[in-house]
Specification:
Blueprint lengths: L1 H11 L29 E3 L3 E9 L9 E9 L10 E5 L7 H7 L1 H8 L4 E6 L17 H11 L10 H22 L9 H18 L9 E6 L1 H12 L4 E7 L4 H5 L10 H15 L11 H17 L2 E3 L9 E3 L1 H13 L1 H16 L20 H9 L9 H14 L7 H4 L18
Parallel strand pairs: 4-5, 4-6, 6-7
Antiparallel strand pairs: 1-2, 2-3, 3-5, 8-9
Length: about 450
């Protein structure tokens, strides 16, 4: 059980690519790997092999041309030619499976054993694969200006914040529209069903490489978060091509395709309550925010919430000549949402920060909301937008307001930051793309 929990934590927190000494026969990127319709593996990143698989832009109209999908493989030490590959489907949408496997090599080998090859990939539109869209076409000033206009804090932090978040999203939509029309006309083909077809192309190419019948090839996979929606879509579209499928951290696929994320907030307060009980059980040596009962911890936590809700904390920085800051209610809520997504890693961190705030030092909270990185990458938003085309349930201010009110009613700790958080985290989903080119 412990290794499964460790795996989930690592899969949910993408790390940096591993550093290594460059060997002469190694490649450390996908730029010099030629795309091929045949699965051709090139040694890469020391312990891996990489391939850029050529796939159709549009499986229903193959005359439009092709794009390439980046795959990476960790060969099982005891795998044979006929051993199935387990494909790890990354979260997001918008997360890199290549980075995921590179950063999680040790736990992957421990989790799946050495009798299988482990494969992951960057879905179309993501990182090393084709059809990547930059909505601002390299204009970093325009992107940062939009972020400033859109990042007004939690959704109900002021009487106008909800409206500002909703209507400013049209700015982002117009930039994405323009980029599609003038720079990246094929960005419409970054849908989840298209990625499912890409997985079929992969398993067939792998079967052919092994001398097996492509038509009999089946997918063995482990999908996490959004990857469960990919898995569910695959099973729906190609039920006879499923070999073994593990879906972990289930996403409501029906809600995903409607851009309706109500289920996501249902148990977030329970996760916050778990913090109080675990902190109490851990004792004062292990949990710096310890209290004699879980109720005591919760009460002190609520006291900090009410304090920041009414009075932001100024940090002048004058004594150490640091930059001044203002710690806000939104910063505290950003700490909560970050913590509940990776609780095993961040419960101790949150305990330390809350302890310091209780002692009068809120400096560790400064900039927490800004560090959510609102709309820092376009891949996830574009994929979600294309997937919810003509089904989007957040296309009007009334719908968005109703959704925000629902999240607040379901979670007193997370509900008011969840709508804006959805735009910043690759494991989550956006609400503001209702104004994008797909709407």
């Amino acid at each position: 059980m412990k290794r499964l929990v460790s795996a989930f934590v690592l899969f949910a927190s993408l790390g940096c690519k591993a550093e290594s000494n460059h060997a002469r026969d190694m490649t450390y990127g996908f730029g010099n790997i030629e795309p091929s319709a045949n699965l051709t593996w090139t040694p890469c990143f020391d312990d891996f092999t990489c391939s850029r698989l050529q796939v159709p832009l549009d499986y229903s109209n193959r005359t439009l041309g092709t794009t390439s999908i980046a795959f990476i493989k960790l060969a099982g030490k005891n795998a044979t030619v006929g051993s199935p590959s387990i494909v790890i489907i990354p979260g997001g949408p918008g997360s890199s499976g290549v980075d995921l496997l590179l950063s999680s090599q040790a736990i992957v080998e421990q989790l799946f054993g050495e009798q299988y090859n482990i494969v992951s990939f960057d879905p179309r539109g993501v990182n090393n694969s084709g059809l990547v869209l930059d909505c601002f076409s390299g204009n970093t000033e325009a992107r940062s200006t939009f972020t400033r206009l859109h990042s007004t804090g939690i959704t109900n932090v002021s009487s106008t914040s909800l409206e500002e978040q909703f209507y400013s999203s049209s700015i982002y939509g117009e930039w994405c529209n323009n980029a599609v029309e003038t720079v990246s006309p094929y960005s419409y083909y970054v849908t989840t069903p298209a990625s499912v077809h890409d997985l079929v192309t992969f398993i067939e190419a792998e079967a052919e490489l092994a001398g097996q019948s492509p038509s009999d090839a089946k997918l063995w996979c482990y999908g996490i978060s959004y990857g469960t929606a990919v898995g569910a879509t695959f099973a729906s579209m190609f039920p006879d091509r499923v070999g073994r499928m593990v879906l972990d951290g289930i996403l409501n696929t029906e809600q995903y395709y409607a851009n309706d994320w109500r289920d996501n907030v249902d148990q977030m307060d329970a996760a916050m309550e778990k913090f109080s009980s675990l902190c109490n059980s851990a004792g004062p040596e292990a949990c710096s925010f310890w209290g004699p009962t879980p109720a005591n911890i919760t009460a002190r936590l609520d006291s900090i919430i009410h304090q920041l809700q009414n009075h932001p904390i100024p940090i002048s920085g004058a004594e150490n000549r640091d930059l001044p800051a203002l710690v806000t209610y939104s910063d505290l809520k950003a700490l909560f949402i970050t913590t509940v997504y990776t609780p095993i890693l961040f419960f101790p961190v949150m305990a330390d920060i809350l302890h310091q705030v209780e002692l009068g030092n809120a400096s560790a909270l400064a900039g927490t909301f800004d560090n959510l990185g609102i709309v820092s990458s376009d891949a996830g938003l574009v994929i979600r937008c294309a997937d919810s085309y003509r089904r989007n349930k957040l296309t009007t201010i009334e719908e968005f307001k109703s959704y925000a009110e629902y999240t607040v009613s379901k979670s007193k700790y997370i509900g008011d930051i969840y709508p804006i958080f959805l735009e910043s985290n690759p494991l989550a989903v956006s609400s503001a793309f209702s104004k994008l080119y797909c709407g």
